[in-house]
Amino acid sequence: MRFIDLTGQKFGKWTVIEKRHNPNEGSTVWLCKCECGTERVVRGKDLRKNKTTQCAYCGGNGYKHGMKGTRLYKIWANMLSRCRNPNEHCYKHYGGRGIVVCEEWNDSVRFIKWAQENGYNDNLTIERIDNNGNYDPSNCTWILPERQSYNRRNNHHITINSKTKLLIEWAQESGVSYSLIIHRIKNGWPPNLLLSPPNPHRSKRTGYADAGTKNTSPQSYRGI
């Protein structure tokens, strides 16, 4: 029978990556990648005869760990999507800047096993320890959703008196609202005044005021 090279062809959700040698198979086998990222070796005749169109984890009846549709499975699927799907709205912050999912986690079973053995519960979300690093076991942990704000790329780092912190941390420490500090930055306030108590009137001492801002209630001044 004439050899047919299937490399690069799509069969359902499968994309053929390369030919693999398997002496135990009676037909040619191919390494394929499913749209979800799972890689499997599949027989060529099963691809051509449409006997397989996707991996077991996407196939319903062949699903092995019974977690399809659960929150943890969705976390895994969303992680792959934002790193691999250019149509995903937040792709530019992940796959678009080189963030990838490690080969081990192409398999949802392995990801779920790691999650269950490393502190996952339903009120936590996955977080990369190094925001410029990849999704892999050495760079990921589980945290409360509100803690993710500390690691967002759009957070501001502000240096005051030789100390550098995230703007949100300065806001929580000083009692001055995050939005008010942003307003002051946009209006050219110097760093040493960003955390001063809000005042809607022009200050005789500094010449700076918070006119037009909503947060004008008295707050304690903790110094800068």
What would you note in describing this structure?
This protein is of the alpha+beta class and 224 residues long. It folds into three domains: 10-58, no CATH class; 71-148, no CATH class; 155-224, no CATH class. Helix content is 21%, strand content 16%. The protein has helices spanning 44-48, 71-84, 108-117, 167-174, 178-186; strands at 10-11, 14-20, 29-33, 39-43, 125-128, 140-143, 157-160, 163-166. The protein has a four-stranded antiparallel sheet with strand order 1-2-3-4. A two-stranded antiparallel sheet has the order 5-6. Helix 2 crosses helix 3. The N and C termini lie far apart (80 Å). Mean pLDDT is 77; it is low at 60-64 and 212-224.
Overall morphology: elongated
Largest pleated sheet = 4 strands, antiparallel
Order of helices and strands: EEEEHHHEEEEHH
Mean pLDDT: 77
Low-confidence stretches: 60-64, 212-224
Please tally the helical runs, counting DSSP H or I stretches of 4 or more residues.
5
Radius of gyration: 26 Å
**Count of structural domains:** 3
The structure class reads alpha+beta
Number of strands: 8
End-to-end CA span: 80 Å
Residue share in helices? 10-25%
> What's the arrangement of strands in the largest beta sheet?
1-2-3-4
- Beta-strand content: 15-25%
Topology:
Elements: E1 10-11, E2 14-20, E3 29-33, E4 39-43, H1 44-48, H2 71-84, H3 108-117, E5 125-128, E6 140-143, E7 157-160, E8 163-166, H4 167-174, H5 178-186
Antiparallel strand pairs: 1-2, 2-3, 3-4, 5-6, 7-8
Helix pairs in contact: 2-3
